[in-house]
Amino acid sequence: MGEGGIAPVVTLDMPSLIALFFVVLIGLPHGAFDGAVAGYLGAGRSAKSFLGFCLGYCLLAAVVVLLWVQFPATLLVMFLLMSALHFGWGDANSTSRVGFAVQVTIHGALPVFVISVLHEDEVRSLFNLISDGGAAPALFIARSICWLVIALAPVYAVMAWRDPSMRRRFIEGLGLAALLALLPPLVGFSLYFCLFHTARHMKHIWHNLRTVMPMSHVYWQAAIFTLSSWGMGLLVFVWLDSGNVTADLMKVIFIGLAALTVPHMILVDGWFRASERKNGHGKEVGSGT
């Protein structure tokens, strides 16, 4: 239900529908390489250990879905905060702690919170749809973090001017901010998620995976995980059958993203990056490229 007990009505234009299609086609499957990442980290040493990883991964995702059903507004806020941290961590490349923190905050906020404030009316309807009318807390957090971004932007500019290694990311952030302001929110998010985040994530893990396992194994695992996630999404979509195709589609995609983000972050931002630091393959602070 929407704010005031009225169910939100959301209609998507063709560019937004195409954007969602690419999120499902390109964005979601990048997490399908998590099985290969887990194998690289040792979970694939035996069928039992790999099965244990898969069961734990799916169980954690299921817990997120169940919690979302019970506490949609709270889980929406948590999902946005986790997504911003995950995106920012993947984009940051500064080797200084302060510079890294500034980059994580600004780059993570752009496709999550800044886009929400720039297109607040449209995003409010979408947030209400996937959180049963619980958009208000998420939008409050978005506005607050946008003020933080505004405060940190001059600091980032000075850092980029002094440190040549940060300039490319700074210019990228300016260009992305302009695109997010001009494009519809779902189109802007899809552009970032598919062309920036997914591409950068794959480039980051690819070098590690290809050194320890045949790429044919990586492709097969990714295909199995991708088809499984699509199959589960389709089953949930059919099960919802609320009569509102747009609403059901949005819930399946974004609650599914939230469910997969939690185990994906634990694996990639926790276990994988810790392994890189231990083996001396990552940067001193960040490992973005």
Structure in words:
The chain has 289 residues and is mostly helical. It has one domain. It is built from eleven helices and no strands. The protein has helices at residues 14-27, 34-40, 47-70, 72-91, 97-118, 120-130, 135-162, 164-182, 185-210, 215-240, 245-279. The radius of gyration is 19 Å and the shape is globular. The relative contact order is 0.18.
Characteristics of this structure?
289 residues, mainly alpha, globular, disordered C terminus
Major β-sheet annotation? none
- Spatial separation of the terminal alpha carbons: 42 Å
Assembly category = single chain
Number of helical segments with 4 or more residues: 11
The helix/strand class is mainly alpha
Overall geometric form: globular
Low-confidence stretches: 1-7, 283-289
Q: How much helix is in the residues?
A: over 70%
Order of helices and strands: HHHHHHHHHHH
Number of domains: 1
Radius of gyration of CA atoms, rounded to a whole number: 19 Å
- Beta content comes to under 5%
Mean pLDDT: 83
Count of distinct strands: 0
